[in-house]
Design a protein that fits this description.
The protein has five domains: 81 residues, OB fold (Dihydrolipoamide Acetyltransferase, E2P), CATH 2.40.50; 90 residues, OB fold (Dihydrolipoamide Acetyltransferase, E2P) (Beta Barrel), CATH 2.40.50.640; 301 residues, no CATH class; 53 residues, no CATH class; 104 residues, OB fold (Dihydrolipoamide Acetyltransferase, E2P) (Beta Barrel), CATH 2.40.50. It starts with a helix and ends with a helix. By secondary structure, the protein is of the alpha+beta class. A five-stranded antiparallel sheet has the order 3-2-1-4-5. It has a five-stranded mixed barrel with strand order 6-7-8-10-9. A five-stranded mixed sheet has the order 11-18-17-14-13.
Length: 694
């Protein structure tokens, strides 16, 4: 009797309650399960299925009591079924030889060989070539639809009897022959909202009409907008003129007063907060606000009265800010310029016949102010990374035709410097009022990243940084010295990767990259929620109904902190989604270039292979280790070098190579290549011996 009790005690002591994932359910009444605890993840155990009180399906997670004795693991009790989200994945609709629909998973690129049988809901229609969102079919779904299991050769290694070979289509994303599908795919992958709920749209219908109230009338001031060719949401208008005493400049930056239309805690406001920002794909936009606002009521279209929050800034003749003043205004944009139009004007390439002398004077004045601001930027030492932007051109059907790498032009920089000027004024206004708000902060590189940067650029350039506190001026010096050298691109990329990620915070801790003590986002409330919040705070200062920090509400501060974290995350998500879609659309252009030999530059070296840029930075590709000359390669992480022991080939960042394109995966947005020629070959002990043998 004692022995029996001892055994029971031992069983309790040697048991654990763990989560398990059901892998398969066999016909013999047993289920196979994987223990989710990493310590036991290699263990696959059998569970009696038919005798259980708690029913479960394949892919379900259950909580079970497990006993461990004599190196054996068994389930002594199933406690409950765990609620989990069914795993989604994406697939392309294809036809088999019997002209039946099948699905091919897309996540694995070339290795994606698993063919899945689709279950199509009655409300969906699928066609060959469609990209669809799918989930593994549940056992109950298969039972309800009376899906028959396939009879196959017993020697087959594939388990066709598992319902994992069936997939239930949840949504049709679009046709693979439509390039916009790749943008909609990113919308689903990154869980972005591309539609507005009815309560949001209903609020727009009730929006109050614009009234002058106590707004300053700027309708006769020739403010202008300068944006890209395809821009639709014009949220800033600018103007500059010399002071009467010739001792400086008066600059006006008028920003669309979104807060006038989007009331705090309204349905519109809650939706804008949730989205955090607009997302700009190469071929479509997911706006933060409905288009009735972003592209119409709030957009500073020419010759239309628009509500604005305007800042007047007085600069001296050196471009140093003497003062600023915020006020609510009504403006009427005098003209909508594109960057290219302004660029032609300042380079004396524009046809001035149809250009009003007043407009010409405005552009020239803005250009003069820009030159002053640019000098101040150099003096304070703002980081001067001149990285190209990839711009995709499309044909009439929306298909990508080619890609241009465009560096920032002067007209673009004019607006950039004026926006920075206004953002600084906004941050100072908030700080001087001593109220809680949101700042745009950018910390210096971490010690770890700074050390990696020093190691990567190597001597003699690294001597500029060694023993010194990180500062953009030092990095600018390195950039200037490397300009025009083969190492220019890799040094630009290395300095970029060393930077911390800019974010939003309710505590002001300066902006390293811009070399500014006070900085906030104020100039884009149509597409950024942070800017809308700052607008509301500045208006509260104007109306003198704000609360200072010494008597602030602690709950408000916590809420502000949470908002900062949230919109920093939505910004990162948007950036990732935009980059992923750009990569996918560019990759489409390389589908017909398999086996072509192209020039490339090594961007970075890793243990698994080499990342290279092809076609002067238009696309990136992976050159895996197996694609290099056959050898055993050693990896030097500090020097960023791969070198072969036998062949003597070595590869380092910045090096030029010729590679052959071997694989293109539009869904993954990736290109794989194989070495063709290039690299440095040195004589090693091993290959010297080989020569002697010959």
């Amino acid at each position: 009797m004692k022995k029996k009790n001892d055994d029971q005690v031992d069983e309790i002591l040697n048991s654990l309650i763990l989560s398990l994932e059901i892998i398969s359910i066999d016909n013999d009444g047993f289920a196979k399960a994987r223990i989710l605890d990493p310590k036991f993840s290699q263990n696959i155990i059998k569970i009696p299925y038919n005798n259980q009180n708690i029913k479960f399906d394949e892919n379900d997670h259950i909580l079970g009591q497990l006993s461990f004795s004599n190196d054996k693991i068994k389930v002594t009790k199933i406690i409950k079924k765990l609620e989990i989200e069914r795993k989604f994945f994406y697939a392309q609709v294809k036809l088999n030889f019997q002209k039946e629909f099948i699905l091919q998973e897309l996540e694995r690129g070339k290795k994606s060989r698993e063919i899945i049988l689709p279950i199509v809901p009655k409300n969906l229609i699928i066609k060959k070539g469609d990209i669809v969102k799918v989930q593994s079919a549940s056992r109950q779904t298969l039972k309800n639809l009376k899906v028959k299991k396939l009879k196959i050769n017993k020697n087959s290694k594939r388990n066709y009897n598992s319902q994992l070979n069936y997939a239930e289509i949840v949504e049709v994303i679009g046709s693979s022959l439509n390039p916009e599908t790749y943008s909609y795919l990113a919308i689903r992958e990154y869980n972005l909202s591309d539609k507005f709920e009815e309560d949001v749209l209903e609020e727009i219908k009730k929006i109050k009409s614009l009234k002058n109230q106590s707004r300053v009338d700027l309708t006769l001031t020739p403010l202008v907008t300068i944006d890209g060719d395809n821009a639709k949401d014009f949220d800033d208008a600018v103007y500059a003129e010399r002071l009467n005493n010739k001792k400086g400049w008066r600059v006006l930056v008028a920003i669309a007063d979104v807060s006038y239309y989007v009331e705090e805690n309204s349905a519109l406001d809650k939706e804008a907060r949730k989205r955090g920002n607009s997302v700009y794909f190469p071929n479509l936009v997911v706006p933060m606000l409905p288009e009735e606002l972003s592209n119409d009521l709030c957009s500073l279209k020419p010759n239309l009265d628009r509500a604005c929050l305007t800042v007047e800034i007085i600069l001296d003749n050196n471009g140093i800010k003497n003062s600023h003043k915020f006020f609510q205004s009504i403006i009427k944009s005098a003209k909508r310029f594109t960057y290219n139009e302004v660029e032609d004007i300042i380079n004396n390439k524009a046809s001035l016949d149809n250009l009003d002398k007043k407009m010409l004077k405005v552009i020239n004045s803005l250009y003069e102010v820009y030159n002053l601001l640019e000098k101040q930027r150099e003096i304070r030492g703002a980081l001067n990374l001149n990285l190209p932007e990839r711009v995709i051109s499309f044909d009439q059907k929306g298909w990508p035709t080619h890609v241009d790498t465009i560096y920032g032009i002067t007209s673009n920089k004019i607006i950039e410097e004026l926006m920075i000027l206004a953002n600084v004024a906004a941050a100072e206004e908030i700080k001087n009022a001593n109220i809680d708000c949101i700042y745009r902060v950018h910390e210096p590189p971490s010690q770890e990243k700074y050390k990696i940067l020093i190691d990567l650029i190597g001597k003699p350039l690294s001597n500029i940084l060694i023993g010194k506190v990180p500062h953009p001026l030092l990095m600018n010096k390195i950039l200037n010295l490397s300009n025009g050298t083969p190492e220019q691109e890799i040094i630009n990329q290395s300095i970029l990767r060393s930077q911390s990620q800019a974010r939003y915070d309710n505590i002001n801790s300066s902006h390293f990259g811009l070399a500014l003590k006070n900085y906030g986002h104020f100039t884009s409330p149509i597409r950024r929620y942070a800017d809308l919040l700052i607008h509301r705070k500045i208006i509260s200062i104007i109306e003198k109904n704000h609360t200072k920090k010494n008597s602030h509400n602690i709950e408000e501060e916590i809420d502000l902190k949470l908002i900062c974290e949230h919109i920093s995350n939505t910004e990162r998500t948007a950036t990732s989604a935009e980059r992923k879609t750009t990569d996918r659309l560019i990759t489409l252009l390389y589908e017909n270039k398999i086996d072509e030999i192209v020039d490339c530059n090594i961007i970075s070296i890793h243990k698994f292979g080499i990342f290279v840029s092809i076609d002067n930075g238009i696309a990136e590709a992976l050159l895996p280790i197996k694609g290099l000359p056959h050898d055993w390669y050693n990896y030097d992480e500090i020097k960023q070098i791969l070198y072969g022991e036998s062949t003597g080939y070595s590869f380092k960042s910045g090096m030029e190579l010729k590679v052959k394109i071997t694989e293109v995966s539009p869904f993954l947005g990736s290109i794989a290549v194989k070495w063709h020629s290039g690299g440095i070959k040195t004589v090693t002990k091993n290959n010297r011996k080989k020569r002697r043998r010959k």
